[in-house]
Automatic annotation (TrEMBL):
Keywords: 4Fe-4S, Electron transport, Iron, Iron-sulfur, Metal-binding, Transport. Gene3D superfamilies: High potential iron-sulphur protein. Residues 81-157 form the High potential iron-sulfur proteins family profile domain. The keyword Metal-binding applies. This is High-potential iron-sulfur protein. InterPro entries: High_potential_FeS_prot, HIPIP_sf, TAT_signal. Residues 157-172 have a biased composition (Acidic residues). Pfam families: HIPIP. The keyword Repeat does not apply. Residues 47-63 have a biased composition (Basic and acidic residues). GO terms for molecular function: 4 iron, 4 sulfur cluster binding; metal ion binding. Residues 29-63, 157-179 are annotated as: Disordered. It comes from the Archaea.
Length: 179
């Protein structure tokens, strides 16, 4: 008889636990607004991480869209790259079209060799306004020195291919003479 009492007691404990869980589930789902807000916040955070929104701090007053697609500050609008390439706004390509990413990530993925980055790319226009970002003669938006894309070309290669001679002006900027 003692065994029947223990079995019955165990059954009631389990049934009671199941009822509590069931009731809690019903009550927890009753306020869908809060639950959706939490889910939305989690999704937004995940999307931002995937898109790199938290990856780099944006320059003051620059939106994520401007950072990705431009326009960049006026000082870059008609600037020349490190190898003397002119920046033609109408011919710029989106970052997504050129596998744009951090140089270290590109090297890990086998897309580039270690050490190749925008900083040593012929197309890069280094920071000219003190915000920590430069631009590119071929790619839209703000560009950091430690980024990379599939258009990467060493400065030495670009200069060897070039047909112009360069010299500095009184401000230290390069002047390119086409021959």
């Amino acid at each position: 008889m003692a065994r029947v009492g223990q079995t019955r007691r165990r059954f009631l404990q389990l049934a009671g636990s199941g009822a509590v869980v069931g009731i809690a589930g019903c009550l927890g789902g009753g306020n869908g607004g809060e639950q959706e807000t939490e889910t939305t916040a989690e999704t937004t955070t995940t999307e931002q991480k995937e898109e790199g929104a938290d990856h780099e701090q944006l320059p003051e007053g620059v939106s994520k869209e401007e950072f990705e697609y431009g326009p960049v500050p006026a000082v870059y609008q008609d600037a020349r790259s490190q190898a003397g390439e002119p920046r033609v706004v109408e011919e710029l390509v989106p970052k997504a079209d050129v596998q744009f990413q951090e140089a270290s990530e590109a090297a890990e993925a086998g897309l580039s060799v270690e050490g190749s980055s925008c900083e040593n790319c012929a197309e890069f226009i280094p920071d000219m306004n003190g915000d920590g970002f430069g631009a590119c003669a071929k790619v839209e938006g703000y560009i950091a020195a430690d980024d990379w894309c599939s258009l990467w070309e060493s400065i030495e290669e670009a200069e060897a291919e070039g047909t112009g001679e360069t010299e500095g002006d009184e401000n230290g900027s390069e002047i390119v003479y086409e021959m």
